[in-house]
Amino acid sequence: MASKKKRTPNTGNDGWVVVAADSVTNPQNDNSDPAFVRLRNPSTDGASLYMLGGGDAQLFEVKAFEEDFHSWFIGQTVQRDGRLLFVTPMDPLYLILPYLIKSGREKFQPVAQVVMDEDFPACSRLLSCTRSLASLHHIADEKEVGSLKFHRYCPDRTMNWLKKKVERTVVVLKKTNISVGEGVKSTTFVRVKSESDEEDYLRYAHGLISEYISEDLSKALLKYLGLPELTSPKEMEPPSKKRKLSDKPVEAGEDYTKFNSADFARKPPKKMTAAQKTLAKVDKTGMKPMSSFFSPKVKAEKK
Questions:
Q1: What is the model's pTM?
Q2: pLDDT by 10-residue block (mean), the chain, 303 residues
Q3: Full residue range of the structural domain in which residue 218 is found
Q4: Is residue 119 situated within a structural domain?
Q5: In this structure, is residue 288 part of a structural domain?
């Protein structure tokens, strides 16, 4: 479903285009609107934009597909922001994991005291996601005292959890018949080899999962999978990393909250200089392009 979210109630062309499932904008169990939040990216450790929907019950990843100087025609209006945002479900454990790793293995702690961040205060909302508390045993040891639960980071559980993520991704890749490995031309994504072996699928799936974990954890997972490091790892990267158009998580600046506010104001387009305005008014009819003066002359054939 493609939906247009308005940033202001009075300006028809101030908005952006979002591709998302119906469950994102029309949750069954909650009437609250989804909200964009600024959270720490588990791979880059920087700020990225995510979405929480269904009363914080589900986390969504936000990626932008964009080109410069593009617009949308929506009804009778022109949408100046030419980006296309993709909103897809994401496992909140990926974002919780770095906080557990940072807390160490010395002692059990309440997870609410672990998932805290002065730079990203919205991280505490991750614990409200349906899958969060129920899935912590995949990456942490648990201890229950009375009605309270305490957790401690567990590397073995984490590696096993990530390995299962890779294996499930391999199953999907095979079912969808996606070409992987060295038999794929990076420019056209056309297979030039009859079939990929299991290692190709594992490396490709590992590359996809590595987009959601730190570099150190990615290397540890590669070793856990029994795969040696490649001399030129870029040759095995998923095609998504080689695309001209970015589909990486949207980086969230300090003004990210403007996506949720009603008083969002777009920046005015850049003004043309006086010379540019003068040049634009010149009648170019009959003029030759500059490149024609540098084209090689065609030699006349001898008869």
A1: 0.69
A2: 42 63 66 86 94 89 76 73 82 97 92 95 94 93 92 97 97 88 53 66 95 96 90 54 50 51 41 58 57 52 52
A3: 155-247
A4: yes
A5: no
